[in-house]
Amino acid sequence: MTDKNNNAETRKTNASNWSPATQMVHSGVSRSQFGETSEAMFLTQGFIYDSAEAAEARFKGEDAGFIYSRYANPTVDMFEQRMCALEGAEDARATASGMAAVSSALLCQVKAGDHVVAARALFGSCRWVVETLMPQYGVETTLIDGTDLENWQRAVRPNTKVFFLESPTNPTLEVIDIAGVADIADSIGAKLVVDNVFATPLYQKPLELGAHIVVYSATKHIDGQGRCLGGIVLSTKEWIEESLHDFFRHTGPSLSPFNAWTLLKGLETLPVRVRQQTESARKIADFLAEQSAVKRVIYPGRADHPQADLVQKQMSGGSTLIAMEIEGGKRAAFDFENALDIIQISNNLGDAKSLVTHPSTTTHKNLAEEARAELGITDATVRLSIGLEDTDDLIADIDRALTAI
Questions:
Q1: What is the pLDDT of residues 184-221, one digit of tens each?
Q2: Would the pTM count as exceeding 0.70?
Q3: Which CATH class is domain 271-404?
Q4: H or E segment to which residue 360 belongs
């Protein structure tokens, strides 16, 4: 059965030679008969066939084209193609949210009796999927300190099928050796799934490092303007068709055409936004490191990052995120957040607006205190997501808030 339009005439054959900035504007465009400049938004559930014979051919896979928007849609297809061009992937499926991407990528390839190894430093909902949901269906799971490659090797069992990690991690910005973990996965025939949200597809290429599947919450930098939810899973065409495709079709985590169109518009400005946000984050991290009210600063790209050498090896840029620990514990962290004027309190990230989060009471509140301690998340930990405001204005805002505590 053919669910997507694979007409080669709609694709740019030379897109692989373009720089990321050009790909983000032009890759995957499939114009209608009207020749529109901006990508068309196909707000349709189903599609019309010229005849009963044409419908039969479409369902048998003999005729390329769309069948139902739960499976595939022209606007969603353009978003998937553009992400494939940026990521260097053969195929992709866009999902309704980042968590839909993560859960689909993991659950589609395991069954009762299989074993999954995951780095323990995960976003709270990702950790719930691994630690709580999968065991309910008979899938064994092991959480490890992912920064030590020996831990991955030691955790391997005869039934290990999947490795899962995010790097840099949320919220403490640990960096894991993706190539090293991929080598271990290859040695046992397992698949490595990498959540690449914090690095963005601009600063880290997990597939080039040996990962088998990459997932994103497109809600974050890809939209980057707080407008909509979305996610995407990228891999080889073989894995998408053999492992993900049927799971995706029948469970229905599909992305809406409207959100796909919004994400296409977000991709057009992704390089410009992320470059500015990263430059501001670097300057702000350096400023924070000099403040007496700040106990610790973690930022990929600084020489004092715990995995500084690895950051330099596998990432081409820093991050829009900063983690820090404030002197004075939870009360001081709350006072700091409440004293900010420009930077707003929110659990989101990768937005045009600068945001601040207190992980232990929001995104990671459901973890036991011991589990948070293992991850380096204390009551004094604060995560900053740097936006597009003037850098000096942001530094002044942070300086005022630190002075207030």
A1: 999 999 999 999 999 999 999 999 999 999 999 999 99
A2: yes
A3: alpha beta
A4: none
